[in-house]
Amino acid sequence: MKGSVLTIGNFDGVHAGHRQLLRRVIELGRERHLQPVVLTFDPHPTRVVAPHRAPRLLTSIEERIALIREQGVEEVVVLPFTADVAQLSPLQFVEQIVVGRLHARIVMVGDNFRFGHKQAGDINTLSALVETHIVEAVHRRGRLVSSSEIRRLIEAGNVAMAGRLLERPYDLCGDVVSGHGIGSRQTVPTLNLRTPAEVIPGNGVYITRTRDLETGDRWNSISNIGTRPTFGGAELTIETFLLSSFDGLTPGRVALEFLWRVREERKFENAEALKQQILRDAAHAQTFFRRIGLQ
Predict the structure, then answer these.
(1) CA-CA to 22 of 20 to 30 Å: which in 34, 77, 146, 156?
(2) Which SS3 state, helix, strand or coil, does residue 12 take?
(3) pLDDT tens, 202-234?
(4) Do 29 and 112 belong to one domain?
(5) Tens digit of pLDDT for each residue in 77-133?
């Protein structure tokens, strides 16, 4: 590299705050004729230094890289975070990695940035070692945008607010797998999702969009996350009812985008009562999609 403007962080979720930071990095790189570069880590540093308090992640490293590149940053460097990296002092981290390997002329970070062994370095430490620009935190609807706040919202079922903080719908990606066959026989046919995602929306019924990861086809849908109490279930399942039919084979891999929570999951007297509720939920979803122009 001839020289870079560098930003450093975990960027889990690549939310509104991260996106503002990335835009500023690109703008400054253009102004100063430097290459915009993102330095991130895998695994999350907390999983190495304090695994007992490591957060559940909103995005895999592959998803993170793709989302960062969608913002226009082509150079994303993933530093394997090891015990040796954790031992680097702030000075060593800057000299060996930030300047030594990534040739950073400018570093741009948030005002709460910490780095080096035991997080001993802060923005004052960084400013003494390399030209540093600070980007203030972002707020949406009176909430500080942070990965931890987004996790809390999603797990509480407030996917609409989480989407505002992410600037995109939260989604779950995974394989479509065989279910128990109850839906096709007694209620309505559904797609059953198996996902490696660590953050799952709280149990309930959601308005969703389903995307085939192989073809790009999309369907309006309604999804249930829960244990199927009407049928005495105990295992968590993610079941999706498509609001329109599809031609061809059942999708193999899908992304499920969560737009709005409709209601809590509850137990019904029998399969017919559940079926009628699913149809009411579907009508609710159709109204939602007409309102936002996605019919």
Answers:
(1) 156
(2) coil
(3) 999 999 999 999 999 999 999 999 988 877 777
(4) yes
(5) 999 999 999 999 999 999 999 999 999 999 999 999 999 999 999 999 999 999 999
Return d(Cα 191, Cα 189) in angstroms, integer.
7
Q: Are residues 131 and 152 in the same domain?
A: no
Strands 104-110 and 4-8: parallel
Examine the domain organization and report whether 35 and 172 are in the same domain: no
Decide the pairing of beta strands 143-144 and 170-177.
Answer: unpaired
Looking at the chain, the whole-number percentage of residues with pLDDT higher than 90 is 83
Alpha helices, DSSP H, located in the chain: 16-32, 45-49, 61-70, 83-86, 90-92, 123-129, 147-155, 159-166, 182-186, 271-292
Query: Is the residue at 243 inside a domain?
Result: yes
Q: How many residues does the chain have?
A: 295
Q: What is the pTM of this model?
A: 0.92
What CA–CA distance (Å, rounded) separates 140 from 153?
13
Please say which residue of 136, 163, 178 terminates a domain.
136
Is 141 a member of any domain? no
Pair 64, 12: CB distance under 8 Å = yes
Amino acid of residue 272: E
Neighbours of 293 (CB within 10 A): 6
